[in-house]
Design brief:
The complex is a heterodimer of chains A (244) and B (330).
Chain A lengths: L1 H8 L1 H38 L9 H17 L2 H7 L1 H8 L5 H25 L3 H9 L4 H35 L6 H11 L4 H29 L21
Helix pairs in contact in A: 2-6, 2-8, 2-9, 3-6, 4-6, 5-6, 6-8, 7-8, 8-9, 8-10, 9-10
Chain B lengths: L1 E12 L2 E13 L4 E5 L6 H8 L7 E6 L2 E2 L5 H8 L2 E4 L11 H10 L5 H14 L15 H13 L5 E5 L7 H18 L2 E6 L2 H7 L2 E6 L2 E7 H6 L4 H6 L13 E7 L1 H4 L2 H9 L4 E10 L2 E9 L6 H10 L3 E6 L4
Parallel strand pairs in B: 3-8, 3-9, 6-7, 7-8
Antiparallel strand pairs in B: 1-2, 1-4, 4-5, 9-10, 11-13, 11-14, 12-13
Helix pairs in contact in B: 3-4, 3-5, 4-5, 5-6
The chains are: A mainly alpha (244), B alpha/beta (330).
């Protein structure tokens, strides 16, 4: 009874929490959008420019892959975030707040997503690419009509994983003034020993991640036509072959 | 008609040069099916990749109806590729596309109007016997149906040449038969030039008009099916009309004989047995109809002390090829 009462009256929960949740969603939403926008083409480039790819570019691939992607990925996000504060100020005009945090969230997550995209594209069998080449496809047509559609279930799964990672990173961004649930938990839960806020924040984060994962899984299933078993009941199933 | 002239492909492997194709030449007339057989490593895959220009040959040329295929510019290369339709061992359909969308794929990439695509796809699916399967995804189709979609897709760009890379190697015998019948039927109906690359002799026997044997990047035997089959002792002949290993009893001479066409309709063997009054023992045999001609390949043993020479002369006189495989032992 006491706990419920506390939930209803604690201003940290009634006032600060909805605002923090909004900030978290803003950070995840905005940086998720930009990660998709930058990371997908980057991942496609990593795949197509690799040796033996559609358009091998040894040096450029090496530079992008080893230098940019791997170096960015090897810096812990907490440190990258601090290092990128000047850049965030240059882009958004401020160094604090959810929008400023989006800059470092995007930059920190793009290489991760790009690698996942590259891996998903590698799963497309070379036979399909050969078939498209023999038809006379251009490279762009192969990317648009073969690679991306055929890897779509994997790409959706990769993006889901990336968004979940963003939720985690966004909580970290709270520590440097990004706002959001992370900052709420830190300010109230840690610095003011307000256990209720801590618990509520954790529950919300868990639910948020679950929702993202479920949505992602459902979407991946929907776009996956690879096995008949997964095609589900909604789709029209044909009679077993009699002609062939 | 497709003409391949002195096609060579040399790969570099470190400091070593690997000759995958060592001067392959062949010519297939319109409306006929040519088979290329060879063991793995003979250069079949390289040949396929060079014919479709997925790999550029080191030297030599490929031409279709007299027009050179090899092109230096990307755009020309893509146009050239569209003159060859290709079907693959595993169909290589796009899993994210329905049967109809898979067939539409080659038309989409040249920006064919939507209405034209729709009617062409319907026509092609009907041609391969898949009416009513327009909206099925490849995963909902059987192996044979998938290969039919692959054939329809290969024909979408109205190619002159159909290249089949192990088209039935992943299918069961019954489905294999149906797919081969379809290929044969389409060749006649659309007057295609068909090249079938396979390791299955069954495919050659069923549909090919002519055949080449590829070995270590060279064509070591080639010719019309009828001619190569009739060549007793030839490599293709002995795989087309195989004899099981059989033990020889007794000491009499063992002969292999091969008869075909007219001589096949005559009871050559019993005739010879009667003429010479000897009992002929058939040890092994292979009797088949190839390219519409009856062939018989037999291993026979003569009784001890028989007059081998005059029997052989008699058989040869009747148009039967004779070869002594084991002399009489005493």
């Amino acid at each position: 009874m006491n706990f419920i009462n506390e939930l209803m009256t604690n201003p940290a929960i009634t006032k600060a929490l909805p605002k923090a949740l909004g900030e978290t969603l803003l950070m995840v939403g905005v940086s998720g959008f930009f990660v998709l926008l930058i990371g997908l083409p980057l991942g496609i480039f990593l795949y197509t420019s690799a040796p033996g790819g559609l358009r091998p570019m040894r040096v450029t691939n090496r530079i992008v892959s080893d230098v940019i992607v791997n170096i960015t990925r090897s810096i812990p996000f907490a440190i990258l975030m601090i290092a990128l504060i000047p850049l965030a100020r240059a882009i958004t005009g401020t160094s604090i707040g959810a929008l400023a945090a989006c800059v470092s969230l995007t930059i920190g997550t793009v290489p991760f997503f790009a690698r996942l995209v590259e891996t998903a594209l590698r799963d497309v069998s070379s036979g399909k690419i050969d078939a498209a080449m023999v038809m006379g496809s251009t490279r762009l047509q192969i990317v648009a009509k073969v690679l991306v559609p055929e890897a779509l279930p994997g790409l959706v799964a990769a993006f889901t994983t990336t968004v979940v990672t963003l939720v985690g990173y966004s909580a970290m961004a709270g520590l440097t003034g990004g706002g959001g649930l992370g900052q709420l938990a830190y300010n109230y839960g840690f610095q003011r020993f307000d256990t209720t806020v801590m618990i509520v924040t954790i529950v919300i984060m868990v639910v948020l991640v679950q929702l993202i994962q479920w949505t992602g899984d459902a979407m991946a299933r929907r776009v996956d036509h690879r096995s008949a078993a997964q095609a589900g009941t909604k789709k029209r199933r044909h009679e077993p072959a009699t002609a062939v | 008609m497709i003409t391949v002239t002195d096609l060579r492909k040399v790969y570099r492997q470190g400091n070593r040069e690997v000759v995958a194709l060592d001067g392959v030449s062949l010519s297939v007339p319109k409306g006929s099916i040519h088979g290329i057989v060879g063991h793995s490593g003979a250069g079949k895959s390289t040949l396929v990749r060079c014919l479709t220009l997925l790999d550029s040959p080191t030297s030599g040329s490929v031409s279709i109806n007299g027009a050179e295929l090899s092109a230096s510019r990307d755009a020309d290369l893509r146009t050239a590729r569209r003159r060859i339709g290709m079907i693959f061992q595993h169909a290589n359909l796009m899993d994210s596309r329905t049967a109809a969308d898979n067939v539409a794929h080659p038309l989409e990439i040249v920006k064919t109007p939507r209405a034209a695509i729709r009617s062409k796809v319907a026509e092609l699916l009907k041609l391969v016997g898949l009416e009513g399967f327009e909206n099925a995804y490849p995963s909902q189709l059987s192996g044979g149906q998938r290969q039919r979609v692959g054939i329809a897709r290969a024909l979408a760009s109205d190619p002159d040449v159909l290249l089949c890379d192990e088209p039935t190697s992943a299918l069961d015998p019954k489905t294999t038969d149906e797919i081969l019948t379809l290929i044969q039927d389409l060749t006649q109906r659309l007057q295609l030039t068909v090249l079938v690359i396979t390791h299955e002799m069954q495919v050659i026997k069923r549909i090919c008009d002519s055949v080449s044997l590829l070995e270590a990047g060279r064509i070591v035997e080639h010719g019309p099916l009828r001619t190569v089959a009739a060549d007793l002792g030839g490599r293709l002949s002995s795989t087309l009309l195989p004899l099981p290993p059989a033990e020889t009893n007794g000491s009499g001479t063992v002969l292999e004989i091969l008869y075909s066409g007219d001589s096949a309709s005559e009871p050559v063997l019993t005739g010879a047995a009667r003429t010479f009054g000897m009992d002929l023992n058939v040890l092994a045999g292979s009797v088949e109809s190839l390219a519409g001609t009856q062939f018989g390949h037999l291993r026979i043993q003569l009784p001890a002390g028989a007059d081998t020479a005059s029997l052989a002369r008699h058989l040869t006189g009747q148009g039967v090829a004779v070869r002594v495989v084991q002399e009489e032992t005493s």
